[in-house]
Amino acid sequence: MRKPTWDVSLVEDDENDAAFVLASLEMFPSLPVELVRHRTLADAIGSAHEPDLLILDLGLPDSTGLETLAQLGQWIPRPATLVITGQKEEDVRHRALSLGVFRYLDKNEINKVLLANSILDALNSVDSSRSALEVLVLNKELSRLRQFAYAASHDLREPLRSIRTFTKFFLEEYGANLDKRAEDYLSRVVNSSDRLSKMIEQMLVLAQTGLAPIQPCRVSVREIIAEIKEDFSATIAEKSADIRLEEFCPDVLGDDLRIRQIFGNLIGNALTYNESSPPVVNIGVDEEEPAMVTFYVRDNGIGISPEYHKRIFDAFSRGNVDAKFKGSGIGLAIVREAIGALNGEIRLNSAYGRGSVFYVRLPKWEAHWRRPRAAHLKAAEVEFLDAA
Prior knowledge:
Layout: E1 6-11, H1 15-25, E2 33-38, H2 41-46, E3 53-56, E4 59-60, E5 63-64, H3 65-70, E6 80-85, H4 90-98, E7 103-106, H5 112-174, H6 180-211, E8 217-219, H7 221-231, H8 233-239, E9 242-245, E10 252-254, H9 256-272, E11 280-288, E12 292-299, H10 331-341, E13 345-350, E14 356-363, H11 365-374, H12 379-387
Parallel strand pairs: 1-2, 1-3, 3-6, 6-7, 9-11
Antiparallel strand pairs: 4-5, 8-10, 11-12, 12-14, 13-14
């Protein structure tokens, strides 16, 4: 995100040269620049001003040439630097560029347009670097938060296990001496502990989904869904549910863990939040692009009201789900996290009482596997691959 105002330091002792720089900046009157001028290098370094851009003359009263360049490291953080000098020594020029000076300009050869464009380019480079740094910092902070969530969830399991275990012991040993109300209270503690334990387990899965390294490989969606059906075999038999996968089912670029989390949670939710007899889940391809494929997962379950569509992928969001349906409310958050890690997308079409359709867009294995090979082949071979 671009900064509202750019802070620029001009280190120039010559009045005419300083006026030339100011005149160049005036060519962009809408450019939000706050300029501070210093006449010596010591004054600039000692200033509390932290510039985004440093416009520097190498012939200063207290410093010249390579001596000036050697002191650039005293700025922390280091600003982007434009050198404007009348010195023509090539060793100074090369040294300046090797130290990371953005541009080295000869006073005798530049004009206001060239200088103005150089300043603009330097500020744009600062903007790009800052954006990349902001993304890096945000990713690092996000990783730290995920690690904290994982550690916190893990540490909660032991005291919760103790609460549940000793409450059960108490009921087993002293239940006969309790009245119905006391027994009911303790039973609620056990049931709440069980629900919280499942939520913590799901929180651990959610944190691990973000922390687990991605190992991109060819993943067969057909094989993953077959294994998921095996995992849910007891529920499928109990509800006489029908899970159908259409014939065309391309492989994707991803990793087994996340593809299993995506389709496992969507199919699991379709079976859990479903009062139809029998529950039916249809899976297939909605759209195929050169590099991506969009799968659909359609069910005849209870559906999700439109007002909950934006929040339904947040952790612990259950939308319009009645309390009689068991579930942690984390499954779709895991789905979104897994799809995001694979540079995919998910969207929803649903209404309460009319079932749901989730659209999952993922990278195709074929597109990402063929192109790198084709790049090293002759033109005729590339055409053969494209036609295949």
